[in-house]
Design goal:
By secondary structure, this protein is an alpha+beta fold. 39% of the residues lie in helices and 20% in strands. It is built from 27 helices and 28 strands.
Length: 803
């Protein structure tokens, strides 16, 4: 046999080996996929449970009692999202390093310093018996799936040689607090404001973090109302946590609105909601229907928590947006120079609580450290400050450390039969603060700002506070009945978009962290443009890409161009596309592309010279504030922020910075796409990829990531498609789901959940809603159990027979 035949034989054998191995691996992975039909016998159930999965893999769970209902909800979630659940559990416990090694050691220390799991344990211990029963049943369902899977775990576990761990009730409660943390921006903005004040002084800092202009819309009308510490490691750990959990992006927001029957074509209320969260794979949401005696609720749970957080039952529908409440404060604590475990409190030294803790790496190596607690909360500045002997450290006070029972709130919300019962359920909802709109089948609509919002007397929380005096302590929380709310407003609708909640005159400080007014302006424009609105109108509002912010800014741009005697080639291009532009961020729009690139440049040209490169990056990480500031300053005849402080020979004006930024934008687009503006489509820059944690690896991208897809919209459109100003223009944050509830037919909810319900790459439901979402399509989620039974696949969960 010659050498060629030998090599050929070897190649054939290698190919056969690879093929057989691949087929074997594929078969093994198929075994880990969700079982949708047949029967499974499970220990812990009290009666049979029927799980009907519709054509998009959404489970509709019918149980004989609450225990079995939440048990089955945990089981179904684990069927579809086991890898996601494992990452959540490791994160809240500060145990990511046991999987990821030393690369996440600082994140685990961060998580343990913030005491998420300890807080979860306290919440469970203090909870009602009903809440404890719900959480126990839910985690028993998760754990039963892990046990009965018998090593047939999803592909991520195989690739990383990992086995899932069992859950406890504290894991669920801790994850609830982690989500609260991710919706809290006060701490990040507060320290950035502090850094800017240190650099530029209080007066200049106040110009950037000043109040919401009175001409911008509020949620409620007047009529409705009748340091020295170092946080660099803290910030890095928080950013890396988001990466490990696939929560990339910043400045989350949402839209919701509700209209009464007098505003709808059918004479019945309509409600819409689209929370703007990281567009990851899998989604943070898990859609399902829960049916048992006393409850029939359909909507969205957070994968890893019990109950439907947003959705509708047979009588009530509701939606959430973030209040943007100032729910956290930093306290600068003074350390005793002779005893670094003591801090100054009203003229006396007080002992910090010192806890020994550790982080365990995958290699088994143990890293030990101390945690410190003050009366305000944990010390979160770089802990080596204590070792160095500095006299200042930073402690965090945050409403997430309150012991409250959100599980019970959701339980009662899911079962409310009218708006009064629904509002009563909100009393237990403390963290995070949310704008909740709702409607009932009696034709009532309403809004309630709910959550724990601190009362600060004589100060706001915009800058870090002196921790050595009790004068800066919180004075309780806004009483529930004094939180902003309205029932059946005379306008016939309520809308929220993370904008300011109340007009001037409200007696309590809520926040200074509001989103720019563009989304709420546009929503209100569209809600008031017609006397009567339909479900289709609601779809058009959710998918709208017109930016009032762009409309206002381009007016100023055209004014500047109009005063220029001669326009060079670049300025002529800008003038041509901006003049007559409808301010819509459509995918194919050249004007939208020019505007977005111009926005990135004018922000930099306006603020970076004063702030410096590093501080500017921190400032634009939370995009809402710099965009608001730019809009405010552009509307003024002049502002000193437009002067480039690095040029001593000239005082730059608004016009100078507009023209400079236009030139830079046209240059960038020409370099990217050539000299023909017709090729400068916005969707060539602006794309969405639903990224999986393992999708960062080049060989894994095609398996685990979904996309990229060309995308319209932008930072200030109702159809929100946010990119990071620090790293434009890929979309990271947007409508994590969309829902529309029409009270004409409460058995059908319009919804979309990208990229899909399942977490298994081999499942058709891993990506089946992604293109639908991109193209503005909805699916009909049915809650008529008879129809679901007829159309869906049935899995029966049977209790194990006791011998």
């Amino acid at each position: 046999m010659n050498i060629k035949k030998i090599l050929l034989a070897i190649l054939v054998l290698l190919f056969a080996f690879v093929l057989i191995s691949t087929l074997f691996s594929y078969r093994m992975l198929r075994k880990s996929m969700t079982k949708e039909k047949g029967k499974i016998t499970l220990s812990g159930l009290r009666a049979p449970v029927h799980v009907y999965r519709d054509s998009y893999g959404i489970p509709h769970i019918v149980a004989a009692n609450d225990h079995d209902l939440y048990f089955a909800a945990g089981f179904a979630t684990a069927q579809d999202r086991l890898w996601q659940l494992e990452m959540i559990r490791l994160a809240v416990r500060g145990e990511l390093s046991t999987l990821l090694g030393d690369t996440s050691r600082h994140v685990d220390r961060f998580m343990k310093t913030l005491e998420f799991y300890e807080t979860g344990q306290k919440i469970v211990k203090a909870a009602s018996q009903n809440t404890q029963n719900i959480l126990s049943a839910y985690v028993d369902g998760i754990n039963q799936f892990i046990t009965q899977a018998d090593g047939k775990y999803p592909v991520e576990f195989v690739l990383l040689n990992w086995k899932p761990h069992l859950w406890t009730a504290a894991d669920v409660a801790a994850y609830g607090r982690l989500m609260s943390w991710e919706l809290s921006f006060a701490w990040f903005v507060e320290w950035t404001a502090h850094d800017i004040r240190q650099k530029l002084g209080t007066r200049r800092a106040n110009e950037l973090f000043s109040d919401y202009p009175p001409s911008w819309p509020t949620i409620l009308s007047k009529e409705d109302m009748k340091m020295d510490g170092n946080l660099s490691q803290f910030r890095k750990a928080n950013a890396d946590l988001r990466n490990f959990l696939n929560w990339r992006g910043a400045s989350f927001g949402s839209n919701n609105w509700v209209i009464s029957g007098k505003k709808s074509k059918t004479g019945k209320p309509l409600l819409a909601n689209d929370p703007h969260l990281p567009l990851a794979n899998p989604s943070v949401w898990y859609a399902m229907q829960l049916v048992a005696p006393g409850v029939n609720v359909t909507g969205f749970s957070l994968a890893g928590t019990a109950g439907i957080v947003i959705g509708h039952n047979e009588h009530v529908a509701w939606g959430f947006t973030n209040v943007m409440a100032d729910d956290a404060d930093f306290y600068i604590e003074t350390i005793n120079p002779v005893d670094s475990t003591q801090y100054l409190t009203d003229g006396k030294w007080k002992k910090m609580i010192v806890r020994k803790d550790s982080v365990v790496s995958r290699s088994g190596q143990v890293y030990r450290f101390n945690r410190f607690d003050t009366r305000h909360g944990p010390v979160i500045s770089d802990v080596n400050d204590l070792i160095k002997g500095t006299r200042k450290v930073v402690a965090l006070k945050w409403t997430g450390y309150l012991i409250s029972d959100e599980t019970n709130a959701v339980y009662k919300m899911d079962r409310a039969s009218n708006w009064k019962e629904f509002v009563d359920a909100l009393r237990d909802y403390r963290s995070p603060a949310q704008n909740i709109v709702f409607a009932d089948d009696g034709g009532n609509i309403g809004y309630w700002c709910t959550g724990a919002i601190p009362i600060r007397k004589g100060f706001t929380g915009m800058y870090p506070l002196n921790g050595s005096t009790s004068a800066t302590n919180w004075s309780g929380f806004i009483p529930f009945n004094q939180l902003p709310h309205v029932i059946n407003p005379p306008e016939g609708f309520v809308a929220t978009a993370n904008n300011r909640v109340t007009p001037r005159g409200y007696p309590y400080y809520i926040s200074n962290l509001w989103e720019p007014p563009a989304r709420i302006q546009r929503i209100r424009e569209m809600l008031t443009a017609k006397k009567k609105l339909s479900e289709l109108d609601f779809e058009m509002i959710q998918l709208d890409v017109l930016s009032p912010f762009a409309r206002d800014v381009t007016k100023e741009v055209l004014k500047a161009l109009g005063t220029e005697p001669v326009l060079d080639d670049s300025l002529q291009i800008a003038y041509k596309f901006f003049k007559g532009w409808d301010s819509e961020m459509r995918r194919e729009s050249t004007a939208a592309a020019i505007f977005q690139v111009f926005l990135v440049h004018i922000l930099k040209n306006t603020f970076q010279d004063e702030l410096g490169a590093k501080l500017y990056q921190d400032f634009i990480e939370f995009a809402g504030i710099p965009i608001q500031d730019l809009q405010k300053f552009l509307m003024l005849p002049k502002s000193r922020w437009f002067d480039d402080v690095r040029t001593s020979e000239k005082v730059e004006t608004k016009k100078d910075q507009i023209l400079k930024s236009l030139h830079e934008a046209i240059r960038d687009l020409t370099q990217r796409f050539g000299a023909k503006p017709i090729k400068w489509r916005w969707d060539k820059l602006h794309r969405i990829t639903f990224r999986h944690l393992l999708g960062n690896e080049p060989l894994m991208k095609k398996i685990f990531n979904v996309g990229p897809f060309p995308l319209g919209g932008g930072l200030t459109t109702v159809n929100n498609a946010r990119y990071r100003l620090t790293k434009p223009y890929d979309c990271w944050v947007g409508p994590s789901m969309r829902q529309i509830v029409d009270f004409t037919d409460l058995t059908t909810m319009k919804m979309i959940l990208p990229p899909g319900e399942a977490g298994h790459p081999l499942s058709v439901h891993f990506r089946d809603q992604a293109k639908m979402w991109v193209n503005g399509l909805y699916l009909d989620c049915k809650s008529d159990i008879k129809q679901v039974q007829e159309e869906g696949k049935e899995l029966v969960l049977e209790p194990e027979v006791q011998k």
